Amino acid sequence: MRDVSTPLEMTKKVGAIDPNRLGGSVNRPYQRMTNKRKSYARAGVDVDLGNRLKRRLPRLARQTHGPQVLGKIGGFGGLFRASFRGLRDPVLVASMDGVGTKLKIAFAMDKHDTVGGDLVNHCVNDIAVLGARPLFFLDYIGTEKLQPQVFSELLRGFSKACRTARCALIGGETAQMPGMYRRGEYDLAGCIVGVVDRGKIIDGSAIETGDAVLGIPSNGLHTNGYSLARKILFEKLKLKLSSRIPGVRGTVGEELLRVHKNYQPLLTEVPHGMIRGLAHITGGGLIDNIPRVLPKNCDAVIDTRSWRAPEIFKFIGKSGNIDREEMYQVFNMGIGMVSIVAERDAKRTMSILHAKRIGRIERGSGKTRLLHLSSRA
Description:
With 377 residues, this protein is α+β, with helices and mostly antiparallel strands. It has helices at residues 7-13, 28-42, 47-54, 57-62, 102-109, 113-128, 148-165, 226-236, 252-256, 264-267, 285-289, 311-320, 324-330, 346-353, and strands at residues 69-70, 79-80, 90-98, 133-143, 168-176, 186-197, 212-217, 275-280, 298-303, 335-341, 356-363, 368-371. The protein has two domains: 44-200, CATH 3.30.1330.10; 212-371, PurM-like C-terminal domain (Phosphoribosyl-aminoimidazole Synthetase, Chain A, domain 2, Alpha-Beta Complex), CATH 3.90.650.10. A hairpin with an 8-residue loop joins strand 1 (69-70) and strand 2.
């Protein structure tokens, strides 16, 4: 957990000896401790800077807190009171993830608030597919050296996304590790815990042949496929972040930093029992993610003509001469979440989720089958 207290502050908190009032030889131990901190800073880890920056965290975190959050930010663990009114048999659901090489775009753009939102929303979606609502979130930031503005933007991104998701930001960890990262770079990871009533878990077991497969639109790459996208756009085509692609709003940099959507609030509008399976379309695309919720005797048959993939995917596929099937395994191709429902509920669910019918469930072996693909994107 992030500790916002410096050694001097801790001394004042407990009402112990104030080092500023000490004299003679009694003062020397404190002076030696100060020198050690300075030596550590010279080695690349500025503890004092970290503590100063972390003082901003409690205010941002408190904006996400409800009555279930106990204690304060800065201890060794976050406290969350497990009181779940209205749930007969509450089950905790946990997940963790990162943002991947989308961070490289944030570094190059020097814009860091959006990737904080990406991380939260990705994690929220991962537990939402089980029917869970988020309870609390913790983040990890590993960096070569803390940069005040970058740190502030990341925290604002976490806080904003957590407030939107009604999820408490109860703590995290920040590690300065010189030699582990390139100058000015960092890595992010997030852990989320949510809850679902056991009787309302969505696990795909109710999926049957004849069910409809619905796709909820994405707003871009979300958080996957960036290694391939960067290789094609910047290494092969030599584009700049300020370049523009025909049919794509904004610059390349702006397009690649679009924030990963949070689908959980929308999913809660669907009446209980109507959704039989959900798949968050992240790394692995439609090909690898839908089978994670399919019964072993069912296939998801996806008609790739049933929706129009955003221009950014078409441009990447064509420019990189990428096999179309691989495109549907690397990228979301414009579908960020898949919902599987009974045919009788398809029309109503499509209206609620603003979704498109993209396929059907047929007898098979637990795979995704793509229809109407040519060899190249």
